[in-house]
Amino acid sequence: MAARCELTGKGKQFGNKVSFSLQRNKRVFKPNLQRKTFVVNGKKITMVLSTKAIRTLKKKGIIASA
What we know:
There is one protein chain. By secondary structure, this protein is of the alpha+beta class. The protein has one domain (about 15-60). Helices cover about 15% and strands about 40% of the residues. A two-stranded antiparallel ribbon has the order 1-2. Strands 3-4 form a two-stranded antiparallel sheet. The longest helix has 10 residues, at about 50-60.
């Protein structure tokens, strides 16, 4: 799977892991990506979307809530 949402462009971000002793180590924050299949004009289209994008599409009524 790609490391980027095809709709919003949300991708990985970089930051620090901070221990109890406040030592910093580099880490990566990855988006929660899911494969979602849509039927558009009779054709199946599979997209890689973040869960935030899926929630927004459901809220706007673009995706029928299952």
